[in-house]
Amino acid sequence: MRRKTSTRWGATVALVLGCGLLAAQGGAPTVVDVLPGMPPVIDAHNLYSETSGDKVRPALAGDLQRVYVPNLQSNDVSVIDPATLKVFERFKVGRSPQHIVPSYDMRTLWVTNNAEGRTDGSLTPIDPRTGKIGTPVPVDDPYNMYFTPDGKSAIVVAEARKRLDFRDPHTMALQYSIATPGCPGINHADFAIDGRYAIFTCEFSGALVKIDIPGRKVMGYLQLQMPATRLKELKGAPRTKAGQVWEPGISEICTVKKGMPQDIRVSPDGRRFFIADMHADGVHVVDGDSFKQVGFIRTRIGTHGLYPSRDGKRLYAANRGSHQIHGSKRGDGGVTVIDFATETVVADWPVPGGGSPDMGNVSADGKWLWLSGRYDDMVYRFDTTTGEVTKIKVGIEPHGLTVWPQPGRYSLGHTGNTR
Questions:
Q1: 179 in a structural domain
Q2: Are 68 and 76 spatial neighbours (Cβ–Cβ below 8 Å)?
Q3: Structural domain containing residue 207
Q4: pLDDT tens-digit profile of 104-142?
Q5: Residue 248 within a domain
Q6: Which of 104, 124, 102 is nearest to 113 (CA)?
Q7: How far is residue 17 from each of residues 9, 78, 95, 254, 331, measured CA to CA in Å?
Q8: 304 in Cβ contact with 263 (< 8 Å)
């Protein structure tokens, strides 16, 4: 990460420069020297500053307010009206839809149909203004998709191929590929504050891979260290009831030699990366620049998805309630709330009766956290003030849903990683 300090300007002055912005929050302002072509960093202390609820772009004003849910096993998308909490439409897409990904310019929502175990993967476009689907684009193994911070490329995460395919962000024509042979199960990512590198998780080797974006190459791998103990998964055990405080269950010695890292999210100041790990029951903390593990935060069983609050102060960790890729229904799932500044747990919200929170996003106003219930064929809406949960029945095995519209200047992909 390239930062420069300057003493030429007063502490209350902020000037937009070609390479970034002078962020003034006490002391010398900081210039972030961003990847050429990337929008400037407005606040170097909070890279989520432009994703607050009052910063939905005018171009999105006419977009429909919807929650789009890809159902992996039923090969369709459920569409929820967030005002009525009802599924009012389901439409067929390609085989094995995994995530709904907002495009870099936020004018298209892409359904990533990776056709697990087959070769007929595709991307289905959705027009967020009308909610209508377009003509699918054939693409090899699109498990997930991101966009380079300069907007020049879509990054199709070809998980089964151990490969990142950089494509034209509009036509999806292949530009070039980066092989990641040391990263089986490559799937989720986040980017440095300056956009010059990305870190991807390697689900099946318990590791991370760091990618040089302008250099188009692998910078290195990092094996994540497992904790000494983790929570014991007990099928059929009593689950937390509505209004009851969740208590962690029995711990066990962690005999698993490698973790199963899933989602990853950068801290507001861009210095640290938080990595959800389904086998470790927590979140690893990694210094991005040095690429070294510096901490671990215990959450609950099957930690999977990570989403920052709209003010950039908290991180919501979705926990599936199982260590298994294909877990059982009504597991001990819930959401753990982490304070970014102190890296401590400040709240925990169970799913009453059990559940399997997976992936999703926060509503534009920050009031609701929407998550798919992977093993329970449900969508959960969490109240971000009280943790109260509303359940909505959807298709079979819902995965990476997105909430629309979203605030932000541009999208880096996944289910709405905006900045």
A1: yes
A2: no
A3: 51-404
A4: 999 999 999 999 999 999 999 999 999 999 999 999 999
A5: yes
A6: 124
A7: 13, 43, 45, 49, 50
A8: yes
